[in-house]
Amino acid sequence: MRRFSPFAALALVAGVAQGTAYELDAAHSGAGFAVTHMTVSKVRGAFYSISGTAEIDEENLAASSIRVVIDAASIDTGVDRRDEHLRSGDFLDVESHPEITFRSTSMEAIGDTELQVTGDLTIRGNTREVTFPVTVLGPIPDPQGGRRMGVEGELTIDRHDFGVSWSRLLDSGGLVVGDEVQIDVTAELVSEGAE
Asked: Which of 155, 126, 118, 160 is CA-nearest to residue 34?
């Protein structure tokens, strides 16, 4: 399989224009998470309402940007009662903070298909800078005449940094909910009207 540098991949998705805008294909994108429960297992879930845009300058990657918006109320762990608790003021407080957002501030190529992305992550109204590696997949032409590129990334955050601090202490000394949250993002970006 042919490998592209991130610059080449972004250039193909962008076509010939610089600073081209792309839409995140919500039907083929998602943000998942996992957090330790009672020190012995992990609860996994995902957010199923996600949108975003990317502005790509293939000749100056540093000038490129990505913005992602997640509907916090779309959290789904497969258990309705738990999901309602996660939406409450104990956790995400979706009534006061309906969106989780990420806005990139810099991108750097670190390999043939890898980028280092730094940006501001906002959860529950608290913003922290995060940096994580991203793998670029593609690009490929799509049946509608555009081009698609996949992006995959993972990072781990301390939920307390974002004001998500509810938990209880077990008799054994551990916490009901772990401090670290593992996040994985898979996004499909489409360049509308590319030839």
From this structure: 155
